[in-house]
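Quick entry, no commentary yet.
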Amino acid sequence: MKEEYSVIPGAESFYLEGNEIGIVLCHGFIGTPQSIRDVAEALNKQGFSVIAPRLKGHGTHQLDMEKCTHADWYESYSHAYQFLKKRGKQIFLMGQSMGGTLTLKFAAAQNDADIEGIITINAALTLPALDYIQKSQALRFIPEGAPDIKKENVYEIAYEEAPVKSIRELQKLMKEVPPMLPRISVPALCIKSATDNVVPPENTMYIYETISSSEKNMVTLPNSYHVATMDNDQELIVESAVNFIFSHVRSKKAV
């Protein structure tokens, strides 16, 4: 399926070349790579190579998104991973919200030898406020409202309306992932906001408790809401990620 609309300026996928440590950094549902650019650039300044894929149907038009399935989003994520793999990078997976959900699904499907570790930020397994959509037949689009960001005067590129069909695809993805969590045994860093008005922080606690990783840490962001990569604790996310990566990268390739 080819996208029929142009990409919104600033919403493009991007790649920042660095050392042999590569990071797939994925945005969330309705969002775009713009929402994680600052974190990506900060990680790149630490030396890492970072690829931020634009998930199919995102950053163009909601009619594009309406045609996509969660398999399309997973494919976008997979292409970013393959991009780093072909370049011989040691790969860490990182994602926010639905990007975190895709990170978990992808990690569960891979051989541990191919992934150094994972980092999730407010990964979504449940969206209680949207549970009613599973039974609603009348709607096609629902208004998105302002992004869940505590910091003032922050602009996120996102659709003003969300296709109900796309929300149902997200719900299918969130249902698929929990039974897969015990398959994950790579080192993991689970980051959650203390207050999240979209995805309950209990999602991250469940992930942390259910994955099989023997090396895992959880970090709580005290001053951010759901879109944490654009919020007040952005530096804490970067610091935590950098420390985690350097603690688990194989020294023979570290630069």
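second:
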Amino acid sequence: MRMIRTSKNMRGTVQCDNTTMHLLQANDFVADAIRQEVAKRNILLINIVSSAGSGKTTLLQETARRLKDKLTIKVLVGDLETERDADRIRQTGIDALQIVTGGICHLEAQMIWQAMQKLNLEGTDILIIENVGNLVCPASFDLGEDYRVTLIATTEGDDKPKKYPRMFLTSEMMLVSKSDLLPYLPFSVEAVVKDAKEVNPDIEHMTVSSTSGQGIDEWCNWLIEKAKEKKGIEQEELLAV
């Protein structure tokens, strides 16, 4: 018997005799395994998400330049095709592995788990996931991260938190990127922060520019602080490791 398709069901669920079955259960199972693995190794796991072109890779390049001599950072980069972003990050002197999704618009926990098996994680302080550029699908997939960081570029417009609320609801940090362009664009940092806080009152925020350097030290210090908390040691000890 042919099933009648409907667009009324929420994405990620199916109704069966009044019982909602979570279709992301397999992903969540692997995400829990990732969370346990990085906890065992005291590795801080960061999932960076955004629209395409918001400056994730450039931010990671600048982050690597400033922290590579202080912390051991490794990066997993998700893209539909090519290794270009991973190549750019490797040029800064840190280890980066490209995950080519072949058309899938997000990373899933199984992809991260498999990629982690190809990295030497011994002694790693921070493992950063650069997700596929998309504010929709990645919001639904737990990757076992400690923190989800959403970039919103000044070139995108300041209305994104209300248009894509799930991404901001599930993020702990919002970075307003490309702040050096603020004088030339109709973008209000105050407005985007207000909307983000209305969606998620607990979300933190910073304004950064990888070009001018604005806010990058603050961002790097945030990473150091979170890595310190994960390892349960003082910041001075972490930087001395």
